[in-house]
Amino acid sequence: MPEQDAPPELDFRRDGSDCLTIVLRGTWKMQQQLPDSDRVQQELAPGLSRLAFDAQGVSGWDSGLMTFLLRCWDLAGANKIQIDSEGLPKGVNGLMKLATAVPEKEGTGRGVTTRSLFYRVGSQSIALAEEAQEIFTFLGEAVIAFFRFFTGRARFRWSDLWVVVQQTGAEALPIVALISFLVGLILAYVGAVQLAQFGATIYVADLVGLAMVREMGAIMTAIVMCGRTGAAFAAQLGTMKVSEEIDALQTLGISPMEFLVLPRMLALCCMLPLLVLFSDFIGILGGLVVSITTLDISFQQFVNRTIAAIDLANFSSGLIKSVFFGVLVASTGCLRGMQCGDSSAAVGVAATSAVVTGITCIIVADAVFAVIFNILGI
User: Where, by residue number, does the polypeptide cross the bilayer (predicted)?
Assistant: First the structure.
């Protein structure tokens, strides 16, 4: 067997009553079966004051030998034994001096730090207050931007506005149509199962029409737009923040709220009511398909019942909510984008947060609208 392939060997030699010499032979590399460092601990008898090394038989080494020696250094330090490293190879001796020259900095480990309940409650309260401050600051700046727009002083490019209008309007029609048609279809089937018990399947038209124009058309369209457009707003603005484009705009004296946020909020606030109208029509169409094909309701009967069931109050309630939902989706998307961190990973976090925040706000707002409309008798 060649010398460089010799297995690592560990031996001990006494040089006097107070010195223990560790004899190393063979190849000390990670892929080898290295001797257990506990054997060194067993040899550290009381009365020893010096630990030396004899590495003349070492034919090769890597970090495996360094790991073993660091363990020997720790054992010697714990037993207050002086180290004599002159017997180690020159390169190993230099690395050991470098590794043990600077002690480990306190606080750099991954130690588990236990915080008190008051500390955690206080930290969460401070974070919540800072989050609320950022939200109100954003809303205040958005209001100022809208005020400057209506007074003709806002600085943004109209071409950007039309691009966002197309992205949030025409390009969203396919997904809104698919979701709305399926929702109308589901409502018709659910209503038919219950109403058939009373021989009143004709009222499926009333159920689908009212449900779509009052609730489902607005809320489903808002949720779809939150996942599609709100996340896109957050990702776009977050990417611009990571690439320091927003900082460049501020350096040039251009308000990011007017140049970036205002066109997006204007476009979505205008397009969402139109999308809700489209969603209402497609949803009712889904109920019509089910009624004609499975419930023996004619086209004329379905249309007559739908027109009779939907009055102006029901129709307008969905449109009123759609305007607020548009503001919520655009605000949450742009807010999370402007709050994005400075790394690429933060862009994904901002997009996810925009969707979660947007959908939560939509549901809460719809519940508030339900209470208000009930009080008003709408």
Answer: 135-151, 172-190, 265-292, 312-335, 347-376
pLDDT in tens, 322-344: 999 999 999 999 988 888 887 88
Half-sphere exposure of residue 137: CA atoms within 13 angstroms, side-chain side: 9
**The pTM is what?**
0.67
What is the CATH architecture of 9-101? 2-Layer Sandwich (3.30)
Strands (E), the chain: 9-14, 19-28, 50-61, 82-84
Both structure tokens of 318: 């969905």
Token readout for 358 is 């947007």
Other CB atoms within 10 Å distance of the CB of residue 124: 10
Fill in the amino acid letter for 289.
V
How far apart CA 10 and CA 16 sit, in angstroms, is: 19
| pLDDT tens readout for residues 260-319 | 999 999 999 889 999 999 999 999 999 999 999 988 888 998 999 889 888 888 888 888
All structural domains of the chain with their residue ranges: 9-101, 154-376
Would you state the structure tokens that stand for residue 196, as one six-digit string?
């058939």
